[in-house]
Predict the 3D structure of the following.
Amino acid sequence: MRRLEPESADHDLVFQPILRPGMWSFPVAGVLLAVVLWAGYAWGYQLMHGLGVTGLNRPVFWGIYVTNFIFFIGISHAGTLISAILRVTHAGWRRPITRAAEAITVFALMIGPMNIIIDLGRADRLLYPFIFGRFQSPLLWDVMAITTYFTGSVIYLYLPLIPDIAMVRDRLSRHDFRRPLYQLLSLGWTGSEEQRRRLSRAIGIMAVAIIPIAVSVHTVVSWVLAMTIQPMWHSAIFGPYFVVGAIFSGIATLIIAMAILRRAFHLEPVLTPRHFNNLGILLLVMTLAWLYFTFAEYLTTFYGGEPSEMAVFRAKVWGDYLWLFWGMVFITFVIPFFILALPKTRTIAGTVVASILINIGMWIERFTIVVPTLIHPRLPYDPGQYSPTWVEWSITAGEFAALALLYVIFSKLFPIVSPWEISEGEAEEALKASKSQRVVVEALARQR
Amino acid sequence: MTQMASDGEERRVYRWGMVIDLDKCTGCQACVVACRAENNIPFAGEEQAQMGRAIFWIRIMPVLEGEYPRVRQRFIPVPCQQCDNPPCIKVCPVGATYKNNEGVVSQVYARCIGCRFCTVACPYTVRNFNWYSPQWPEGMDRYLNPDVPVRPRGVVEKCSFCSQRIREARMRAEEENRPVRDGEVVPACVQTCPADAMFFGDLNDPDSTVSRLARSRRAFRLQEELGTNPKVIYLGEEDWDAKA
């Protein structure tokens, strides 16, 4: 990033949405809220009449609610995992994007598990897994892992926010009604040496701790399927396969979010093509990893040729799910691969197109993992059928709207790009630069 | 087999099992009807039944073997297989399903949260979900069996081996201070079968009818290769699984 006066132009840019909110966000938030409310109505309708209002049946007992659950938990890996990895590896270019990523995690983790509650026949018995929980059920492992991940992610989002909240606090006028909120949340941050030392230590610990937690979460989510003995679910690679898919769709979500933020808040100088390029390369690696896992999984099934496995395999690869399956491969691998592999197309627009395709594809991937197995149970031989109803589609739309809405609200309350982290980065860069300068000067002096 | 009870008295432990003779079964569905009447299974209606929403604790699975013109239609009545190693119990997050000490896989309606993990984990797809509140046509609701609870909407239910009849027989036997006699417990499906193709009894008693039949050379169990160890045993002269 090239800037002449440190501590001014970009920082003001970052604080703009909070200090001088634009009017555009109200209609956007209004539309999103309407979709969420409609989904709320659909859920109320379902609670009134029972799960019969969905398209679920015997043998397709699980449908797009479970698909959504896996998908949202997947995109929650955007954040924390990516930002933690980049932090741990000291990737300097991460600084303007970690906050945006961590926020996705927290909100996706609020929405994902909602699907399980919506999917319950008896939502009123929601607390039973906590009261009567039996630990041998993978569903209880989910409860544990997701609760841990959510708690960790909130802390991990909050810690680097503290100095930024303090900055907002100091920038708001004394009479601003929002000031007490920031006053409270900044925990008396003054930016002293001791506070900085403690904060960076805490962030360092959380960044390391959050990585195994994130990996465990999507592994356990996959085990809900893989621990059964159902054809094409009972697979040992499901854990890593799902984790790879999660990071994959997580990065894609992050790219989409960044592009929107960049446009909406005029963050062009902060979120540069370089960030999209770097994330695009990460996405390229993940699309290859995803293809590798998919190939390994399907070849093993096909080669084994076990009849009940093959019934599901056939349905996906050349049966009823042919279009969904190959369409999914096409938009999660083929197109994104070429867009991302060529430096010419690995632009902001290019990576965004690839990311949108990947996210649609990954939703379909989750769907074609959950449903075809249920359509073709081991017994009876007759295949089932499933077409989601308006209730399921409405709730699904509401979940995506809720994610966007939470994101809009968050970006209006807190700096979505961390000015504190950027200054930290600049300070580090300056230190490095001055050090290398000194080395050069000393070397030159010695030469003389 | 016996076991010490808490009062120090030796008591028999039953292990209930069923034998279904496919060579006798005509596919008449009398067992299905009897089961529905005995166990207060609600009416789904035609539209819901088409969607696969009708509840059956036992159903007839038709198996079409061979290709035209050498076709053979067979019928396999499939109740819950009452596995000794049930995949459904393992996955329940709240302990709403368990294997009782007589080997019957039971469902606790008051505990079930309706997540349907058990229904997707069952390799026989014999578990059912209550998509709507139970309903009976006008008049039919006066014929509900008082010994069997009506299940609320949103929970899973399944074949109980007519546990109300098992309980009744066991209590009678205990009162008379004797073990339950072979053939004393008769589930509704077994009682109704016009072809006499179904048998029920104690698999722990080596001399019981079901134990004797289970040792037959015709005996097999569904998807034995999965290691679920079902306690429903089928008898059939020919290999039923032509598709495999």
Summary: The mean pLDDT of chain B is 91. Residues 88 and 118 of chain B are 4 Å apart (CA to CA).
